[in-house]
Amino acid sequence: MAKLGYTWYPKDWGNSDSVFELSLCERGLYREFIDFAMLNDNKTEIKKDVWLRKFSVSINELNLILDKLLLLNLIEIKENILFIPSCESRLNLVRGGSIGGKKSKPIPKPIVKPIPNQIEIERLKEIERLKEIKRLEEIEILKKIAEQNNGIINSIESYFKELPTSSNFELISASLNIPKDKLTLKIAEFKKTSKLNYLNFNEFCHHFKNYVNKNNSSNLKLKTSFK
Fold it and tell me: In sequence order, what are the residues at sequence separation of 6 or more whose Cβ sits closer than 8 angstroms to the Cβ of residue 176?
């Protein structure tokens, strides 16, 4: 038969309950199959190896889409031929030819709306439920990380506040032979280079002492523990 163009009805496409159930990817492949049907008298030979390359999909993706279209009765597969029921009314006009200058009308077929498969519906619901659980778990993990970081920052801030009035500060002053008022000036400098995680206050003081000793012009020897 001659290969010819055909009229497209966007309203019918948009109002179709079956098409409504399709994802964007599924709609695209179904649309390609309609073109095949109109060009091949609704006798499209199934060539999965060609379709994989043409549509850039994996074999699993292709099989899933074919299963979905079969489930919704949008396509039929007989042996190695793909058939689209919705294309038959248009193709019957072409097959019937002209009678008295007018094209013969195809025998009308009752429109049967597909009945959704309950098992498939439950499977899709379960997939959505698992996605939501995963999303909520990721949110909780991010919250815990944020709480931990806030706790570390709060601990470091408390160490800096406690340092000038602590006994460790007096020991550092005596050990390095630096007056406390001058040693206090070193705190702001140390804050710019200090890390965010210390095991405890004594370790924090130990690092402060090392920093001051390293940057002290007199370079006095220091003691490295607080007990």
Answer: 183, 209, 212, 213, 216, 218, 220, 222
